[in-house]
Amino acid sequence: MSVKPGLGQREFTADIARNRYNCVGTLIASISTEHEHLLQLQYAGVRTVAFDQHVDLNCHMVRFNYRKGGHMAATHLINTGRRRIGFISSPLTRFSRREVYTGFCSALEQHGIEIDRRYIKIANTETAFPDRMCDFSNGLSLVQKMIAEDCLPEGLFCVNDVTAAGALCALRNQNIQVPEQVGVVGFDNIFVSQIVTPKLTTIDQSTLKMGELAADILLDKKSQEDEKIIRITLEPTLAIREST
User: Fold this and answer.
1) Which H or E run includes 237?
2) 44 Cβ neighbours under 8 A, 6+ residues apart
3) CA 87, CA 191: separation in Å to the nearest integer?
4) Model pLDDT, residue 125
5) CB atoms < 10 A from the CB of 65, how many?
């Protein structure tokens, strides 16, 4: 499919709905909190499969249990004997981040650990488009702030692996030993988790499987003929490495 360059999400969606481009359908991984414009695709009869982020559409979806992932990460830190548990993140503007944080909080509450706001650091800003350097900078600066405020936890859960890489850098710069002094857990299990030092314990998000399933649903002739909506939820797994 070929579309005009420089289109925003709303214009891009309208362009597809209007012109179709002989496409078999669309895969949606929108981080926007408003999805009304995506209804244009359904009105135009464009087959739609949403994945990763939550989308308020009556369409096929491949989702991930982010809340369980957050719960699993915090529980792992608790099971390693840590009680002062912290969380750092970019702004909680995305469904996935909010779900991860909710899972994190529920794990602490379940184990009778009070949520100490000194150990919770949420960045105030982020770039308009996904920017891994922004995530790294957030991890670096938020942990630096914890150190400056003398409120470094025993265990630190980071909203994604790149944020965790920034956190590890800040700890290393202050000669704080990981995992001896602070255990660190990330989220995603992308390649960064295995090239940082120490190698990062993280939650595997099944990103490739999520995309493959979404594409399979989109291209499957049987599901094209069947009006039944397909909803699949993938479950997280914990990859334990050197940082805990």
Assistant:
1) strand 237-239
2) 16, 17, 18, 20
3) 22
4) 77
5) 17
| 199: DSSP letter | P
pLDDT at 6: 42
**For the ranges 54-63, 140-149, 214-223, the one whose mean pLDDT is highest:** 140-149
Q: 219: pLDDT confidence band, cut at 50, 70 and 90?
A: confident
Between the alpha carbon of residue 54 and those of residues 34, 65, 190, 231, the distances in Å are 10, 11, 21, 12
CA–CA distance, 199 with 242 (Å, rounded to integer): 5
List all residues 6 or more positions away from 114 whose beta carbon is below 8 Å from its beta carbon: 108
CA proximity to 186, closest of 236, 113, 129: 236
In 3D space, the residue among 80, 167, 160, 72 whose CA is nearest the CA of residue 119 turns out to be 167
pLDDT tops 60 at residue 8: no
98 pLDDT band, cuts 50/70/90, is very high
pLDDT, position 159 = 97
Contacts of 87 (CB under 8 A, 6+ apart): 101, 104, 119, 120, 121, 156, 157, 158, 159
Structure tokens at 172: 């290393």
Helix runs in 174-220, H state only: 192-195, 207-219
